[in-house]
Amino acid sequence: MHRTRKAKIVATLGPATPDLASIRALFDAGVDVFRLNFSHGSHDDHKARVDWLRKIERDSGRPVGILLDLQGPKLRIGTFGAGPITLAAGQTFQLDLRRDEPGDAHRVALPHPEIFAALKPGSHLLLDDGKIRLKVTQCDKAHAVTEVVTGGPLSDRKGVNVPDVVLSLSAMTEKDRADLAFGLKLEVDWVALSFVQRPEDIHEIRQIVQDRAGIVAKLEKPSAIAHLDDIVEAADAVMVARGDLGVEMPAEQVPSIQKRIVRQCRRRGRPVIVATQMLDSMVAAPVPTRAEASDVATAIYDGADAVMLSAESASGRYPVEAVAIMDRIIHQTESDPYYREAIDASRTPPANASADAIGRALSAVTGILSAQATVAYTTTGHSALHMARERPHAPIIGMTPRLATARKLGLVWGIHALLTHDVADVTEMTDFACRAAKHEGFANSGDTVVITAGLPFGTPGATNLLRIATVE
User: Fold this and answer.
1) Is-catalytic flag, 76?
2) Catalytic site residue from 76, 131, 259, 268
3) pTM above 0.90, yes or no
């Protein structure tokens, strides 16, 4: 069973997918990687979903990737004594550390000393997903006097965003650490880290995860964009979390930032997911808006590895329909002749490394010979990632003896992951690759297949072989 498109679909599980049958329906509709949002649900809920996904994997014979998304620190104001208030533009409003005192029309608690430590006059605070904007006029380590720039109703426990400063705050809370330990026991394939501000956040979680899962950096803070190159280098994959970026940055900047992130990830050979509100209207409607369809297509034209559904599949009324429509949008976009032109035109020079050189040569050979499939023998996924970086015309069969590697490759553009045995020599490798390409429906007798591997076999990161073969 293989997908005929190259870009992948990530879908979030939640109340709309409460059982094996509903999750299997999403898989059949086209989901490649399933996201477990640890901001919601209990450990028992998530374990049940992992068990169902592993059953689907066994039944289908297709590796299924699982992405654990950590909640990250949640910054919120306190409560109000007499119910919601309304702030008016131009008025003064105070935030302070007096968490035990209910708020009123003039002040409210903000129980996060790390915010006050970073604030300075002129900084902005955004409340309730940016609906209310405050400008700091005076501040110290225990309070901040602000002027209301954009007013409106405000109620208990609304979220706070601080776009202008880097907070001295770990991207992982105690809850995240417990969730991460639990997820690693379940052998999830990817871990998404929220609230990334700098590469040190990735290094911190890497010490815990090591090589047990791939690390996805969620880019949702302006400070992360300021450190984009270093974060992309430190992470295994990147998620463009456009919703939070759109809160902390002007909305008109988000499209260009999305393109910049995708380009940088493609340059470094890092898988990149474009996420948030892709088909948001399908939470309540059976069809998307035309603007949403265009939004998904734009991410595909840019060469993103995957696009993601959040509430659409987790809590929406039409989860299967959302996946099916996203699948159709990707197919339609990839069949457009301009898509191939755009992908080829956006290719960047390879690094001075053997794997990048082999990947570029494979892409050229595939185009010249009109090869029907490419094959990467890979232990860690390294070879397949370098092939995917070049976005070859033919699909990539990622053949690996490691199930964990096969599951992780489900996130990567163009790769059909296939679990296989270790091969002893180049002749066996070639014969098996040709048989697999034919059996999986990618090639027929007489077709050309281009194969990459590393010699000696089983040596991670040693991609140094390119072979052209004909399917018998």
Assistant:
1) yes
2) 76
3) yes
